[in-house]
Amino acid sequence: MDIRQLKYFLMVAEEGQITRAAKRLHMEQPPLSRQMKMMEQELGVRLFDRNRTGLKLTEAGELLRQKAESLLLQLDEATREVKEIEEGVRGVLSIGSVVSCISLLPTHIGRFREQYPQVTFKISEGDHYQLGEQLEKRMIELVIARLPFEAQTSTYQYDILPLSSDPFVVVIPSSWVSFSGKESISMQQLASFPFLTLKTDRTTRMHEQVMDACRLHGFEPDVICECSSVAIIMSLIAEGIGATVFPKSVMSSFPATVVKMLYIEDTDFQSDVGIIWLKDRYLSKSAQHFIDLFRMD
């Protein structure tokens, strides 16, 4: 077997069909079928079960898929590392971020670009599960997220650089005139508010942190909307529909004319934030320098 055959095999495994795989590989179907048969003959095992609907990996095929993916990722990392010896800090830096941390990126990207103008950025947004999968597949190198990082896999495989804690604040509509001129609020006052909360089906830690703070002050919030989008929640608040509790850094992305931020008087709870990357995996020079930029804060 060679690298080319492994790439062919992975494409067929992904598509579950020779025809679709050949199309994506820009080749004819018969040569691709021959390559799969040659691999099976060389290994002395069946890699696919063939039926009317397509191809399904056998147990041996699944093992080869896992090993082939790992091998090709290592080859890609080795190639990048060797090239960087000559090229220096340049290329594309792929970063993932949860929506509530996006506001932490612009300032740091601006500072980074001043030092390394040959680096461009690709930024993905998602929840912890989605970003964890993208890290695993090396689609991104770094993640900016609230902690703990609620990915599917165990946290032992990640390195995490904790960043400055982010205090929670109350966000209300600017149209609520009873709070005009006020800069703070007590937790107990939230009990009477229609409440909006940031929550997805798979990442709930920040939602639970806010709910627990409310319960410690003797009330259950009147939750009228659960939403996975910060922008949607802010739009609802701007329309006067309700209030929420968000990390303060989120507010930098939204104009103070439509929503109002209030500090919390009688509790001091924080949202922890960190940069996450895969442990014991090669990091590009640009990723290493980007992490160093946060270390200097």
Describe this structure in words.
Helix content is 39%, strand content 24%. The longest helix is centred in the first third of the chain and has 29 residues, at 59-87. A hairpin with a 2-residue loop joins strand 1 and strand 2. With 297 residues, the chain is of the alpha/beta class. Helix 1 crosses helix 2, helix 1 packs across helix 4 and helix 5 crosses helix 9 (285-295). The protein is built from nine helices and 14 strands. The strands form four sheets. The chain has a five-stranded mixed sheet, sandwiched between helices. Strands 7, 8, 11, 12 and 13 form a five-stranded mixed sheet that branches.
Q: Can you give keywords for this protein?
A:
297 residues, alpha/beta, 5-stranded mixed β-sheet, 14 strands, elongated
Largest sheet: 5 strands, mixed
Task: Give the distance, in angstroms, between the N- and C-terminal Cα atoms.
Answer: 49 Å
In the predicted model, the low-confidence regions spanning at least 5 consecutive residues are none
Number of strands: 14
Helical percentage: 25-40%
What integer is the average pLDDT?
A: 89
Content-based structural category:
alpha/beta
Q: Report the C-alpha radius of gyration, rounded.
A: 25 Å
User: How would the global form be characterised?
Assistant: elongated
Listing every helix as H and every strand as E from the N terminus to the C terminus, the arrangement reads HHHEEHEHEHEEEEEHEHEEEEH
Q: Spatial order of the strands in the main sheet?
A: 4-3-5-14-6
DSSP strand content: 15-25%
Q: Assembly type of the shown chains?
A: single chain
